[in-house]
Amino acid sequence: MWNKIILVLMLLGVSACTASESAQNKAALYQFDELVEVNSIDNFRMDAWRTMDNRTVFVDSRPRETYLLVLNGVDSNLKFAQALVVSSRMGKVTVGFDSVMTGSEPRSRTQIKKIYRIESKEQEQQIRAKIESFSEKTN
To answer: What is the chain's alpha carbon radius of gyration, rounded to the nearest angstrom?
Structure first.
């Protein structure tokens, strides 16, 4: 009997390590060293937004600035959302404090983990291609 309990505990430990390793690998994919990382967006006023997957969204802010928001977790509604809300404090969006919500689930917030400044449309296309390749690596 004790052998079975020990075996079950060992299997649970191995599966927890595997899940944790998988989550770490997934989080590492969303590190964009080629982009300028910022801690906040001042005078934020969202003009447009585009989602890539359930962890990332591009937002356009005035005047003609684009940012990539990487979320701290998965928002399964993000990719299909028809409305998006980005919280802010006095017009400032800050990593670790503010979050993203979809119009279909406004009570479900996902905290912003990282913000990257996008310098050009070409840079956005490169990042889009990189994010699209993530699904190939994780499936």
So the answer is: 18
